[in-house]
Amino acid sequence: MKGQNKLFIAIIIALLLGVGIGGFVHLQYPESAEPFSKNIKLLGTIFIRLVQMIIAPLVFTTLVVGIAKMSDIKMIGRVGTKAMLWFISASLVSLFIGLILVNWLEPGHVTKLPIQDAASAEELLKSSKGFSLEDFVKHVIPKSIFEAFATNEVLQIVVFSIMFGIALANLGEEYSQPVIKLLDIIAHGILKMVGYIMWFAPLGVLGAIAAVVATNGFEIFKVYAIYLRDFFFALGILWLVLLLVGYLILGNRLFELLRRIKEPLLIAFSTTSSEAVFPKLVEELERFGCNNRVVSFILPLGYSFNLDGSMMYMTFASIFIAQIYGVEMTVGQQITMLLVLMLTSKGIAGVPRASLVIIVATCSMFGIPPEGIALILPIDHFCDMGRSMTNVLGNALATSAVSKWEGQLEDHGGKM
């Protein structure tokens, strides 16, 4: 526990140092801000790449072992059904909160943002043009598991792992046990690596924050203050709803869970990557008392289907762009947009800046100028901090809730 607190303090210090160093460079050496930002960002890149290095093997081994150890196909179906019911309910609630609050707060009506050149959004506009049912299927079903591993396509790895795990569960212990034991050892070996990699987190946080502040300065906070204020207020409401549901299910143990996941939450907030904390989250949820089979099964699924922060952001940002351009949308159109986002968002898990790609595609579909994405690109980093942190909370609650429903949540905390 002392080591955990040391890491938490180191991350907080790195966060403050990053803001301070970035601000100093921006104010004192503005001409050097761009090269400085490019170089110091490498610290964040090193940390993210170290984590990405172990994502694919960890998802594969933990998910296969989690399913194969269940051995009972009925249990796999039962746990999977409970998880998907949670994911779908949480996604709908997140989308509705975003929709209701953006209509109530109307950040697009009260802010007068400069209409920016759409060139900054050009890459996103290109990547969204090909979005179709065919692309969705291709993104979900792996053509080659080795390609999925090489490109860290989490959703494709999840699909293969579920099928392989079910096959092992039906193979009989004589054949399956050696394979399960090997994969279990590999999974715990990778989890051991997590402890080493997490000590790079403070450097990653410092690099990521310093780069953004050095380039944009503190002005970026002022220019988009209303948008950020309204978005984080909406996130706060979503957190209250999630924590209330969590308390109804977990009781006072919810506070213990929050203590356990404080580091993953902070790292996700600082690095804007919920993926970066996946290994640490597996470790902390098992220590919290969640059954390792349930964690191994639910968490990888959650990273593909349960992105609460991203879901809320999609409705919030899409309607915000409509407000900026004065595009009036009926209640029926907004509900349709919500359902479209509900479906399309499930097919792009693991895609870089996935939320923005989906927003562009959705805007095009509903007659909202997709170039409007350029308006929110400069502050997307700060919004991403909040939504990444929320994604982590949502997945931790989902895993703990399903463990509780299955009677697989230990009161004294699990052991690694």
Which keywords apply here?
cell membrane, 416 residues, transmembrane, symporter activity, mainly alpha, Proton glutamate symport protein
Principal-axis shape equals globular
Main sheet summary: none
| Structural class estimated from helices and strands | mainly alpha
Kindly estimate the percentage of residues that lie in beta strands according to DSSP.
under 5%
Write the layout of secondary structure elements.
Blueprint: H1 2-28, H2 33-70, H3 73-105, H4 107-110, H5 122-129, H6 133-140, H7 145-150, H8 154-169, H9 173-197, H10 201-216, H11 219-223, H12 225-250, H13 253-260, H14 262-271, H15 278-288, H16 292-305, H17 308-324, H18 331-344, H19 354-365, H20 373-405
Helix pairs in contact: 1-10, 1-14, 2-8, 2-9, 2-10, 2-16, 3-12, 3-16, 3-17, 3-18, 3-20, 5-19, 8-16, 9-15, 12-17, 12-20, 14-20, 15-16, 16-20, 17-18, 17-19, 17-20
Summarize the structure.
Keywords: Cell membrane, Membrane, Symport, Transmembrane, Transmembrane helix, Transport. Helices cover 80% and strands 0% of the residues.
Overall description:
This protein has helices spanning 2-28, 33-70, 73-105, 107-110, 122-129, 133-140, 145-150, 154-169, 173-197, 201-216, 219-223, 225-250, 253-260, 262-271, 278-288, 292-305, 308-324, 331-344, 354-365, 373-405. It has 20 helices and no strands. With 416 residues, the chain is an all-alpha fold. Mean pLDDT is 80; it is low at 111-117 and 347-352. The protein has a single domain, classed as Proton glutamate symport protein. The protein is globular, with a radius of gyration of 21 Å. This is Dicarboxylate/amino acid:cation symporter. InterPro entries: Na-dicarboxylate_symporter, Na:dicarbo_symporter_sf. It is found in: Cell membrane.
